[in-house]
Amino acid sequence: MSETDLIQSAQRTIALEIAAVQALEERINGEFVAACEKILSCSGRVVVSGMGKSGHIGKKIAATLASTGTPAFFVHPGEASHGDLGMITRDDVFLCISNSGNSPEMVAILPWIKRMGIPVVAMTGKSNSPLAEAADVILDIAVATEACPLDLAPTSSTTVTLVLGDALALALLEARGFTAEDFAYSHPGGTLGRRLLLHVADVMHDGETVPIVTTTTPVLEALGEMSRKGFGITTVVDATGELVGVFTDGDLRRCLDRDIEVKNASIEQVMSRGGRTITPQALAAEAFNLMETHKITALVVTDNNKPVGILHMHDMLQAGLV
């Protein structure tokens, strides 16, 4: 095949799958609503099952449901009849995927599912199949033709099934009022989870590692404190321990530019008053945004205006927030 032939083949596949998905949109009707209501009224889990390519799509649908507020898991129909049916309870909903509606492994377990009184939601392309006849709700995944030029490999049909699974999961998400915070709780290892769950207190340096000097400290001693703690900054407090300013590497450069005799100066004469601060309870993502906005690499953490921690941009990198 020439390069042109390869490109045209890909474009034909994409066009056929887009057409299949557009046809699906027109079939979203009362049956889709009924499927949502069955699942929303279910006190157990959504058990997703399918053979072959339908099984692969089913695993993704189960994962999407589980991560968007609908407890779900995948059961292989071949394993189900060899013990895995014990994973399914009467409180569950059985979401069964088969384009033909006639997969032998699936048909074999349907009588047990029905005997248990478990509602069956079928995703099938055949409304007169054994699966459709056993289902309480039928979601139509029929396609005019597979994108495969041989019309054999499940391509358009699996795309339609995947899209319908996403539509189902996200309709349920909205119906449950599932929030970004809810999503984060099931994704603590991801960047989104860290941004929504990680607090300043989780990543800041505290205790003896916090650089602190008083307003009467000579600049040379303050530089020593900065070198020992290694953040390029020291907090400056008054006699009551409250923060009155900070002294940074940048302040030192400005002192030298202005020919200030640092050997004889006190830190109060050269520090930057005030400065950006944040509380330990704030989200680490807020701290990161503050540091980015004001182009600073270290941030003082205060509690009742007393320095209790230091946050450095390196901490954000290590925490995976960047």
From TrEMBL:
It is an enzyme of class 5 (isomerase). Its EC number is 5.3.1.13. The record marks K53, E105, E146, H187 as: Catalytically relevant. One of its GO terms (molecular function) is arabinose-5-phosphate isomerase activity. SMART domains: CBS. InterPro entries: CBS_dom (IPR000644), CBS_dom_sf (IPR046342), GutQ/KpsF_isomerases (IPR050986), KdsD/KpsF-type (IPR004800), SIS_dom (IPR001347), SIS_dom_sf (IPR046348), SIS_Kpsf (IPR035474). Pathway: Carbohydrate biosynthesis; 3-deoxy-D-manno-octulosonate biosynthesis; 3-deoxy-D-manno-octulosonate from D-ribulose 5-phosphate: step 1/3; Bacterial outer membrane biogenesis; lipopolysaccharide biosynthesis. Pfam families: CBS (PF00571), SIS (PF01380). Zn(2+) binds at H76. Residues 35-178 form the SIS domain. One of its GO terms (biological process) is carbohydrate derivative metabolic process. PROSITE patterns: CBS (PS51371), SIS (PS51464). Keywords: CBS domain, Isomerase, Metal-binding, Repeat, Zinc. It catalyses: D-arabinose 5-phosphate = D-ribulose 5-phosphate. SUPFAM superfamilies: SIS domain. Residues 204-262, 271-322 form the CBS domain. This is Arabinose 5-phosphate isomerase. It comes from Teredinibacter turnerae (strain ATCC 39867 / T7901).
